[in-house]
Design goal:
Structural class of chain A: mainly beta
Structural class of chain B: mainly beta
Order of helices and strands of chain A: EEEEEEEEEEE
Order of helices and strands of chain B: EEEEEEEEEEE
Radius of gyration of chain B: 13 Å
Strand content of chain A: over 45%
Oligomer: heterodimer
Largest sheet of chain A: 7 strands, mixed
Distance between the termini of chain B: 35 Å
Radius of gyration of chain A: 13 Å
Shape of chain A: globular
Number of helices of chain A: 0
């Protein structure tokens, strides 16, 4: 069974940093591209970033480019999102999600971790 | 950036009725469109990928159609558990984008 478990969310002040982690199990992590998608409270879904299986290709939404960094450790079956210079508008539930094939449709999602940016 | 526009914003129907949800793209996305269902407090669930392919375990009452810029998600006969928010997403171009969602509510 595919499992994705996010951690690392919490309350942070504007301008602060946070690192999210996603532990993957139930599939061969190193063979799949992965994503972060967020959802502000009461709002729709927003794609944040994607990374290919070997980290060769990385993509970011304009809203986070230069502030967020996606990475992965295939030996640890883990995906990360380093978030710097956080803003109030970054407040959201952050989901870790797998693509069904390399850069194909996103199929499995974790339950999310809440990031709140507030003074 | 490709903008996806979903309509209607809210759809009020009764169990047993047929639901038709629309997603229109600002430019062609070929068949690279997916549909997701999200219930309150839950993560999204993949229903349809590449416009018309049902994901694993998705009931046959869900079907997708379309290509280019116009897509449709059809639920042939609504079950009580189908009332939720539905999103479309394109993977044709970066950035990947989502529609704003259609809320399917019980009439």
């Amino acid at each position: 069974e595919v499992q994705l478990v996010e951690s690392g969310g919490g309350l942070v002040k504007p301008g602060g940093s946070l690192r999210l982690s996603c532990a993957a199990s139930g599939f061969t992590f190193s063979s799949y591209s992965m994503n972060w998608v967020r959802q502000a409270p009461g709002k729709g879904l927003e794609w944040v970033s994607s990374i290919t299986s070997s980290s060769s290709y990385i993509y970011y939404a304009d809203s986070v480019k230069g502030r967020f960094t996606i990475s992965r450790d295939n030996a640890k079956n883990s995906l990360y999102l380093q978030m710097n210079s956080l803003r109030a508008e970054d407040t959201a539930v952050y989901y870790c999600a797998r693509d069904r094939q390399q850069l194909a449709t996103t199929d499995y999602w974790g339950q999310g971790t809440l990031v709140t940016v507030s003074s | 950036e490709i903008v996806l526009t979903q309509s209607p914003a809210t759809l009020s129907l009764s169990p047993g009725e047929r639901a038709t949800l629309s997603c229109r793209a600002s430019q062609s996305v070929s068949s690279y469109l997916a549909w997701y269902q999200q219930k309150p407090g839950q993560a999204p669930r993949l229903l349809i990928y590449d416009a018309s392919n049902r994901a694993t375990g998705i009931p046959a009452r869900f079907s997708g159609s379309g290509s280019g810029t116009d897509f449709t998600l059809t639920i042939s006969s609504l079950e009580p558990e189908d009332f939720a928010v539905y999103y479309c997403q394109q993977r044709s171009n970066w950035p990947r984008t989502f529609g704003q969602g259609t809320r399917l509510e019980i009439k």
